[in-house]
Amino acid sequence: MNWKKGKKIVAVFLLLALAVEMAGYHFISEKEQLIVNDTLADSREATVEGMKNPLDTVEYLMNAVQQKDADKFIRGCAVTEQAYGADYENLLKEKSQSVELYAPSGDWLYYFPLMQAVLTQQALKIYQAYAADFQDHNLKFTGSHYSKEQERTEDGWRAAGVCMVELLFKDPSDVVYSCEAEVLEYDGQWKMKIGEMPDITEAISKEDTEEILSEADKNFEETHGIEEREDPDEQTLLPANYFCYKETKEQTPEKLVQEWIYTLKKGELEKALTYFTGESMILEEYLEKKGEYAEQLKKLLFDVLEVQQEDSLSVQKQIAKMDPQNIVYLRGYIREQTEREGGRLEVQVEVQVNGQKSEAVLFLKKSENGWGITKIGV
User: Fold this and answer.
1) CA atoms within 13 A on the CB side of 291
2) Partners of 77 in the β-ladder
3) Residue 75, Cβ neighbours under 10 Å: how many?
4) Is 169 buried (19+), middle (13-18) or exposed (0-12) by CB count in 10 A?
5) Helix axes 54-66, 112-136, angle to 10 degrees
6) Are residues 344 and 257 in the same domain?
7) Using CB atoms within 10 A of its CB, is residue 113 exposed (0-12), middle (13-18) or buried (19+)?
8) Which of 24, 120, 226, 325 could cross-link to 242 by cystine, CB 3.0-4.6 Å?
9) By residue range, what is the domain housing residue 47?
10) pLDDT (tens digit, 9 = 90+) per residue, 159-191?
């Protein structure tokens, strides 16, 4: 066998092995720079591997909301699973809401770090929406049930199954409210789908509540082969499925831009994310800004790749534009620097990919350890 051909086959095999490795849903990096920052994400040990019943998943998530524990909640959402499983062709065909936020990480692992960061941010927003309803309306979670007949697959996210669950809440006047949540199955485990925000507005009667909480759910589980409930308690904690990378700093703005461009050239987007420096060490604020940074970086890459999401273009042509193999030649340099107050700097850079130019403004911040990026303006 030709040595080069054999090397390519091995490389393809390794990529496929990584893509299908769903046992722990961990994205492992060998780079020392990507060690989790313990000041942001506590080294909390999981007590269970996963939820084998969709109602247990919902109960776990609502426990997290009641405990005001964003980290616990995000662990119950399909962050890594959807990032691995994103089927961009189906998402475009379905015209899913906010499809412009997604990256084709299910087709190319190149985009996985960006997709995971954006989905983490969206999972955080869902948590905040539930938390606001609990606080503003003084609601209390009272239970859940399977809301209707289910499909067995979720094509847009390559899930083995999808289950619609209705959540029930009660206010101080004993008025019952409800909303629906989608729960996805991956490898026999269920996690909440990251999608539309919950809307807890519908009040339902006492009679309907009693019917909803009837024994019919048990028949549903038997019909669909779903395992019996294990009833998670307040101490139950799922494994971490998102990452807070240790930040990478450089001693000068010029060195920072040089190294950041180099990570894009090598296709190391997980390393590119480490150059993001948070304005806050509070987990929720950090994850929100990091998600914005990942989206800005994706926008820059799509700009230089001339990606266009237009109805006039076929789905296949839109996706073909996103292929990272199109990045044959990439370079960048600083065009202009503008100093700001508080150890901040605005740096205008020009990035070229295969001759296509795009300009961006990097907002830099200096700390004791060096310079980092707070925002990318495209």
Assistant:
1) 19
2) 192
3) 22
4) buried
5) 70
6) yes
7) buried
8) 120
9) 20-224
10) 998 988 989 898 888 888 888 899 999 999 999
